[in-house]
Backbone:
């Protein structure tokens, strides 16, 4: 027996049993770990992995709603949407995303670095989110992607509506443009259904009316294969187009104004004097909003923002300029209403006015001779208004200027409207911590010095003069319609204030403004028309002060030349439309701006005649039918 025990010890049986127990323990631990992992994956992270697996097979293809159309007042189309294709990439569908994108760049003959940069900038996106590699791609690129689909896992095409601006830059500053939603906007608007890659109004009416124009997105639940290609549609939700917006803008008038301004830096604004509806709002140089619709390139954007002529600036509402002699309309009304001047009283104009130790020159060398109010307006006599300024005082001048809406925002529904400046004693005290000096009023009296206004403000002022003192808020939208044609919202005149004016004041100002264009010696003769009688006022606003003698415009460098103004209304006997024209560095208003206004006025009459003729044809047709 002792011998057997000794043999077992030698055979190492206890060691084998110890090792066996250790092996069993390791197996138990491994099995327990496996069970734990399965429990973790199934119960704790089951939902996540189910989502990932389903997204590997089932995708949600979002379909943006078609944006609403925009029409002018006559029903002519200004903005629509057209079909286009975006290039989409889902990196999770490719084993090597960078290699796939390099191959894609080769097929499309694009810069490899640009495509890879887009991928790197969006690595933080959620798994299986679509990455937009290209928007509104060319037909040749569509063919290349389709032909090499098997070589490009994760790459696909997505059809979507693309904004189309029918007339390009013609009304760009009014209509605005779209751009891809940025991270800051997405953070605010995510709850409203926006996602990365969506386009959103970034400027103009596209931005201000985004809520109504955007429509509602739809989508498809689709099954895809291992390459991310669609196999079948499992479920579909139809997208809903946005509302249709009808503007007060008149496309034919807008085109006439834009063509008149081509090659210049300036703006033309036209208002319906009876209600404040904006008929024209043209600003040049302009930009093509279609470039933003297809996805503007970085070099294009850089060119726009660095251009010293500021094509992105809406001069009608953002440009702040000295009004020059157009301000004499306010001075005349203020002088008559305050009883400071008698209209028939005259002064002698030697061509200058001395106040204190300073001499203020008239624009006309040698002066205008004997001048009363009527002649002062018609011939734009500076000396007459130099003398009127100190008599009124800056505070009374400011009161009347502000009554006509100068120096304050009009409230038009467009981006970044500026207010301009109408100075008074309180304004200067707050702005410069200095008192107002009487000599400064002399410059204010002819629309210089601290005075600045926007062209829209001057057009609105002229409309109020034409209609007898009713200052309306300029507006751009007539109505909004749903897809089925039902009116959702409707807009109309909004009276800001009624300005109480003596009948004699209006009569004398109206008569003088008519003679500016139609009378002997009037500075606005270039606006005279055979089709209608126009009333107006020219203005030449200094950009830099000329301390020497008289200098011709062509002797100055371009950016030192005066701005040219012409503000007007017509027809004289029944005012319907008011127009303000500004030509930056254009020189004299009578030469540069007045002829542009004439073109718009005559187009207005032509449109009215066309409308009357159509109505007559319709009436005649109905009479014959009956």
Residues:
């Amino acid at each position: 027996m002792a011998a057997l025990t000794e043999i077992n010890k030698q055979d190492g049986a206890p060691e084998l049993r110890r090792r066996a127990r250790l092996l069993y323990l390791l197996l138990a631990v491994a099995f327990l770990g496996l069970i734990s992992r399965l429990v973790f994956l199934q119960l704790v992270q089951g939902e996540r992995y189910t989502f990932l697996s389903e997204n590997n097979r089932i995708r949600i293809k979002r379909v943006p709603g078609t944006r609403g159309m925009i029409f002018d007042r006559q029903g002519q189309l200004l903005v629509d949407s057209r079909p286009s294709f975006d290039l989409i990439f889902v990196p999770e569908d490719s084993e090597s995303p960078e290699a796939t994108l390099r191959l894609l760049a080769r097929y499309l003959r694009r810069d490899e670095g640009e495509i890879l940069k887009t991928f790197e900038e969006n690595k933080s996106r959620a798994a299986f989110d679509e990455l937009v590699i290209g928007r509104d791609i060319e037909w040749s690129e569509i063919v290349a992607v389709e032909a090499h689909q098997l070589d490009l896992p994760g790459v696909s095409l997505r059809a979507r509506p693309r904004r189309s601006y029918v007339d390009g830059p013609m009304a760009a500053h009014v209509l605005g443009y779209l751009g891809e939603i940025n991270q800051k906007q997405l953070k605010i608007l995510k709850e409203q259904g926006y996602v990365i890659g969506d386009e959103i109004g970034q400027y103009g009416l596209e931005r201000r009316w985004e809520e109504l124009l955007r429509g509602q997105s739809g989508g498809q639940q689709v099954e895809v294969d291992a390459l991310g290609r669609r196999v079948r549609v499992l479920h579909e939700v139809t997208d809903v187009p946005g509302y249709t917006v009808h503007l007060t803008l008149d496309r034919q008038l807008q085109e006439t104004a834009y063509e008149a301004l081509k090659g210049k830096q300036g703006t033309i604004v036209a208002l319906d004097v009876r209600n404040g509806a904006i008929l024209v709002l043209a600003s040049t140089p302009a930009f093509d909003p279609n470039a933003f619709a297809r996805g503007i390139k970085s070099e294009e954007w850089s060119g726009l923002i660095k251009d010293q002529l500021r094509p992105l600036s809406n001069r009608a509402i953002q440009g702040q300029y000295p009004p020059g002699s157009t301000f004499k309309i306010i001075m005349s009304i203020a002088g008559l209403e305050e009883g400071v001047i008698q209209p028939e009283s005259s002064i002698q104009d030697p061509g200058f006015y001395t106040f204190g130790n300073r001499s203020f020159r008239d624009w006309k060398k040698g002066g205008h001779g004997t001048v009363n109010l009527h002649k002062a307006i018609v011939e734009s006599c500076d000396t007459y208004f130099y003398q009127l300024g100190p008599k009124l005082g800056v505070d009374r001048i400011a009161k009347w200027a502000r009554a006509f809406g100068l120096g304050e925002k009009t409230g038009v529904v467009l981006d970044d409207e500026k207010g301009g400046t109408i100075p008074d004693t309180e304004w200067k005290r707050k702005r410069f911590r200095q008192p107002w000096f009487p000599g400064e009023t002399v410059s204010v009296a002819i629309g210089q010095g601290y005075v600045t206004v926007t062209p829209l403000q001057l057009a609105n002022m002229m409309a109020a003069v034409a209609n007898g003192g009713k200052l309306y808020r300029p507006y751009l939208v007539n109505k909004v319609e749903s897809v089925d044609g039902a009116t959702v919202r409707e807009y109309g005149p909004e009276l800001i204030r009624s300005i109480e004016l003596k009948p004699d004041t209006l009569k004398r100002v109206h008569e003088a403004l008519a003679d500016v264009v139609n009378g002997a010696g009037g500075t606005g003769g270039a606006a005279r028309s055979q089709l209608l009688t126009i009333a107006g006022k020219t203005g030449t606003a200094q950009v830099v002060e000329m301390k020497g003698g008289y200098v011709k415009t062509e002797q100055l460098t371009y950016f030192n030349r005066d701005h040219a103004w012409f503000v007007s209304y017509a027809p004289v006997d029944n005012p319907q439309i008011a127009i303000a024209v500004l030509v930056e560095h254009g020189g004299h208003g009578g030469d540069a701006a007045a002829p542009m206004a004439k073109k718009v006025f005559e187009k207005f009459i032509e449109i009215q005649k066309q409308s009357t003729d159509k109505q007559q044809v319709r009436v005649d047709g109905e009479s014959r039918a009956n």
